[in-house]
């Protein structure tokens, strides 16, 4: 196999046209096989095979800086830069990251897994190259897969055009982000990619001109003016050029020879240049090509022969999907908002029933939140469904556009807590610490699937401020009706005298396990399901203060999180009697590497045995202090 002979980008430059075509096929087969075993991002990588080959044949990485936005498009780049043999551990503990990783390779410049940022990086790096007099190094930024719907991309384009920095931008236009891209610009680009007369004429003329002996290249360059006029009429390149960014394209992103020719010519030009490349997400793998929703953007483990089964919401996501559909049937003011993640956050059933009440803003979380604020001002009840890791991108808008105005916007926060395989950028561990600092914010944390509907109903009854319901990835705990809470109250699960464990959301199940372990060691525990991170139930706090030891447990950051508020509240409730010792358990102040969520939580002492061990240590420490006195 040719693929086995590629140990670095330099090996690619020895290959002829037929060998490159063979290699592209082998890379696609390798990616499908690898991802079928580990899970990961599939469709986006199948679409950039030829583009990545051309980039590494034209440019000399890492001397030239190849930057990826978003980083889930970088599997082919990893394969070509000496990491093929590590794909058996893709997204596994101590294995290959699913995104570019500076620790893995000098070919990876940016550990980028959130969209729309790469042009900002590129602008900064290009300025550094200028100031350091390294004019022989090129900065190349690949953006696409929906990233051009994010505001940061346009801010960077504006600055690049103004500064004239020498950056080559590759717009990988596959018409999609996670799902089909939502954007007026995307519609303009799509008109170009689908206009048969334009595309066929362009390709035919390019082939003819390229074949003219001796002067083919000059003739083809001379056609640029005519192509620019056509683009202006059809509504594309003029936008970029108005910002000071030269536009070239659109070109076939699966034609390696054309890609290389275009890249080489563009590399000789000054200033920022955008090459518009048309690719097919999921190319070469029929199950991906046939997936209308997301082209197998990401997949679990699957059979590569048949492809993965259709993705459906599960666990807490399914509970939310059912709850919002039920609520919206009776309340016509409910609208749902997504930032390019309609399927993953469980909004497809809502969209099917109420298409006019579903807004997908693209990869624009800040805009999603402020739009929700506007809706709430006019009397609607917007529900912003979003991953925890992406929610933090819009904290300023949550605080000032929603919170400051006391608007009843509801945030349905999926993938909260430790998420696992996607590593530090995707753990949802900041939401409680941040949201609890927004005045007037109510923060719910369900411990079971059944709590989700109850909490959404309660959130809809709140009209004088925002609320959030945060829930984890994965299977949801199922409980009978008599184990579901209500209103803004916490819920006591069992009584004991020695320690009071206050558990948040997913941690309730671990706290109950810890109580069983402690009982075997002669320690009796009261266990509370906190349910409300903010405001804390005063009855729960008063009860906790009667115990000699209080332990809070959360799957968010320990510093400034729910436990900090619990400790303060318990201390303030003691009123003249000695305050109980309070142990706050949570995620430490560091970036958490990829691994299965259960393994991470166990390592952090946030599983049943870990919580029990922390209680025993605290009890022993208290006894030691008593003995010394």
UniProtKB/TrEMBL annotation:
<comment type="function">
    <text>Catalyzes the acyloin condensation reaction between C atoms 2 and 3 of pyruvate and glyceraldehyde 3-phosphate to yield 1-deoxy-D-xylulose-5-phosphate (DXP).</text>
</comment>
<dbReference type="InterPro" id="IPR049557">
    <property type="entry name" value="Transketolase_CS"/>
</dbReference>
<feature type="binding site">
    <location>
        <begin position="113"/>
        <end position="115"/>
    </location>
    <ligand>
        <name>thiamine diphosphate</name>
    </ligand>
</feature>
<keyword id="KW-0479">Metal-binding</keyword>
<dbReference type="GO" id="GO:0009228">
    <property type="term" value="P:thiamine biosynthetic process"/>
</dbReference>
<dbReference type="InterPro" id="IPR005475">
    <property type="entry name" value="Transketolase-like_Pyr-bd"/>
</dbReference>
<feature type="binding site">
    <location>
        <position position="174"/>
    </location>
    <ligand>
        <name>Mg(2+)</name>
    </ligand>
</feature>
<dbReference type="GO" id="GO:0008661">
    <property type="term" value="F:1-deoxy-D-xylulose-5-phosphate synthase activity"/>
</dbReference>
<feature type="binding site">
    <location>
        <position position="174"/>
    </location>
    <ligand>
        <name>thiamine diphosphate</name>
    </ligand>
</feature>
<dbReference type="InterPro" id="IPR005477">
    <property type="entry name" value="Dxylulose-5-P_synthase"/>
</dbReference>
<dbReference type="Pfam" id="PF02780">
    <property type="entry name" value="Transketolase_C"/>
</dbReference>
<dbReference type="InterPro" id="IPR009014">
    <property type="entry name" value="Transketo_C/PFOR_II"/>
</dbReference>
<feature type="binding site">
    <location>
        <position position="285"/>
    </location>
    <ligand>
        <name>thiamine diphosphate</name>
    </ligand>
</feature>
<comment type="subunit">
    <text>Homodimer.</text>
</comment>
<feature type="binding site">
    <location>
        <position position="145"/>
    </location>
    <ligand>
        <name>Mg(2+)</name>
    </ligand>
</feature>
<keyword id="KW-0414">Isoprene biosynthesis</keyword>
<dbReference type="InterPro" id="IPR033248">
    <property type="entry name" value="Transketolase_C"/>
</dbReference>
<dbReference type="Pfam" id="PF13292">
    <property type="entry name" value="DXP_synthase_N"/>
</dbReference>
<dbReference type="GO" id="GO:0005829">
    <property type="term" value="C:cytosol"/>
</dbReference>
<dbReference type="Pfam" id="PF02779">
    <property type="entry name" value="Transket_pyr"/>
</dbReference>
<dbReference type="GO" id="GO:0030976">
    <property type="term" value="F:thiamine pyrophosphate binding"/>
</dbReference>
<feature type="binding site">
    <location>
        <position position="72"/>
    </location>
    <ligand>
        <name>thiamine diphosphate</name>
    </ligand>
</feature>
<dbReference type="InterPro" id="IPR029061">
    <property type="entry name" value="THDP-binding"/>
</dbReference>
<feature type="binding site">
    <location>
        <position position="365"/>
    </location>
    <ligand>
        <name>thiamine diphosphate</name>
    </ligand>
</feature>
<dbReference type="GO" id="GO:0019288">
    <property type="term" value="P:isopentenyl diphosphate biosynthetic process, methylerythritol 4-phosphate pathway"/>
</dbReference>
<dbReference type="GO" id="GO:0016114">
    <property type="term" value="P:terpenoid biosynthetic process"/>
</dbReference>
<feature type="binding site">
    <location>
        <begin position="146"/>
        <end position="147"/>
    </location>
    <ligand>
        <name>thiamine diphosphate</name>
    </ligand>
</feature>
<keyword id="KW-0460">Magnesium</keyword>
<comment type="similarity">
    <text>Belongs to the transketolase family. DXPS subfamily.</text>
</comment>
<protein>
    <recommendedName>
        <fullName>1-deoxy-D-xylulose-5-phosphate synthase</fullName>
        <ecNumber>2.2.1.7</ecNumber>
    </recommendedName>
</protein>
<feature type="domain" description="Transketolase-like pyrimidine-binding">
    <location>
        <begin position="314"/>
        <end position="478"/>
    </location>
</feature>
<dbReference type="GO" id="GO:0000287">
    <property type="term" value="F:magnesium ion binding"/>
</dbReference>
<keyword id="KW-0808">Transferase</keyword>
<keyword id="KW-0784">Thiamine biosynthesis</keyword>
<comment type="pathway">
    <text>Metabolic intermediate biosynthesis; 1-deoxy-D-xylulose 5-phosphate biosynthesis; 1-deoxy-D-xylulose 5-phosphate from D-glyceraldehyde 3-phosphate and pyruvate: step 1/1.</text>
</comment>
<keyword id="KW-0786">Thiamine pyrophosphate</keyword>
<dbReference type="InterPro" id="IPR020826">
    <property type="entry name" value="Transketolase_BS"/>
</dbReference>
């Amino acid at each position: 196999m040719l693929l086995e002979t590629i140990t670095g980008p330099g090996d690619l430059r020895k290959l002829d046209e037929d060998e490159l075509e063979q290699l592209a096929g082998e890379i696609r087969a390798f990616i499908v096989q690898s991802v079928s075993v580990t899970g990961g991002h599939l469709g986006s990588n199948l679409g950039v095979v030829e583009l990545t080959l051309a980039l590494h044949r034209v440019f000399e990485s890492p001397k030239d800086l190849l930057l990826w936005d978003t980083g889930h498009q970088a599997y082919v780049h990893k394969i070509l830069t000496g990491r093929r043999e590590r794909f058996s551990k893709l997204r596994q503990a101590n294995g290959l990251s699913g995104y570019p990783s500076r620790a893995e390779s000098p070919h990876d410049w940016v550990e980028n897994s959130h969209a729309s940022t790469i042009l900002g990086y590129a602008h900064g790096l290009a300025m550094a190259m200028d100031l350091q007099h390294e004019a022989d190094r090129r900065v190349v930024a690949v953006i696409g897969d929906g990233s051009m719907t994010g505001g940061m991309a346009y801010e960077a384009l504006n600055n690049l055009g103004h500064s004239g920095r020498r950056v080559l931008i590759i717009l990988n236009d596959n018409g999609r982000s996670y799902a089909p891209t939502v954007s007026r610009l995307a519609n303009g680009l799509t008109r170009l990619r689908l206009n048969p007369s334009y595309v066929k004429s362009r390709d035919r003329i390019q082939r003819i001109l390229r074949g003219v002996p001796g002067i083919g290249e000059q003739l083809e360059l001379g056609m640029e003016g005519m192509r620019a006029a056509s683009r202006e009429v059809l509504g594309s390149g003029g936008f970029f050029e108005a910002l000071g960014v030269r536009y070239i394209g659109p070109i076939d992103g699966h034609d390696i020879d054309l890609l290389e020719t275009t890249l080489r010519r563009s590399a000789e030009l000054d200033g920022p240049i955008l090459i518009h490349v048309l690719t097919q997400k999921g190319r070469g793998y029929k199950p991906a090509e046939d997936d209308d929703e997301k082209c197998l953007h990401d997949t679990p483990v699957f059979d590569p022969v048949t492809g993965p089964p259709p993705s459906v919401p599960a666990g807490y996501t399914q509970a939310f999907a059912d709850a919002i559909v039920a609520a919206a049937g009776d309340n016509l003011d409910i609208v749902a908002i997504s930032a390019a993640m309609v399927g993953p956050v469980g909004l497809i059933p809502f969209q099917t029933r109420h298409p006019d009440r579903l807004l997908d803003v693209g990869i624009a979380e800040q805009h999603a939140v402020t739009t929700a604020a506007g809706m709430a001002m006019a009397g609607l009840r917007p529900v912003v469904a979003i991953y925890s890791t992406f929610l933090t991108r819009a904290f300023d808008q949550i605080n000032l556009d929603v919170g400051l105005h006391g608007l009843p916007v509801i945030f349905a926060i999926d993938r909260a807590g430790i998420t696992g395989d996607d590593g530090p950028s995707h753990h949802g561990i900041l939401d409680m610490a941040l949201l609890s600092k927004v005045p007037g914010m109510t923060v719910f944390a369900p411990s079971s699937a059944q709590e989700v509907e109850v909490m959404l109903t309660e959130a809809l009854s709140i009209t004088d401020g925002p609320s959030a319901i945060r829930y984890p990835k994965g299977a949801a705990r199922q409980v009978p009706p008599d184990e579901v809470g209500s209103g803004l109250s916490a819920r006591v699960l069992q009584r004991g005298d020695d320690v009071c464990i206050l558990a948040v959301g997913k941690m309730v199940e671990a706290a109950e396990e810890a109580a069983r372990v402690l009982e075997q060691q002669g320690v009796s525990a009261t266990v509370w399901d906190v349910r409300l991170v903010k405001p804390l139930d005063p009855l729960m706090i008063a009860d906790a203060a009667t115990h000699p030891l209080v332990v809070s447990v959360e799957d968010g950051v320990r510093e400034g999180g729910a436990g900090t508020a619990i400790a303060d509240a318990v201390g303030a409730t003691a009123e003249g009697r000695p305050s109980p010792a309070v142990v706050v358990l949570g995620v430490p102040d560091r970036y958490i590497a990829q691994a299965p969520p259960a393994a991470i939580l166990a390592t952090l002492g946030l599983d049943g045995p870990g919580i029990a061990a922390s209680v025993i240590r605290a009890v022993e420490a208290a006894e030691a202090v008593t003995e010394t006195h």
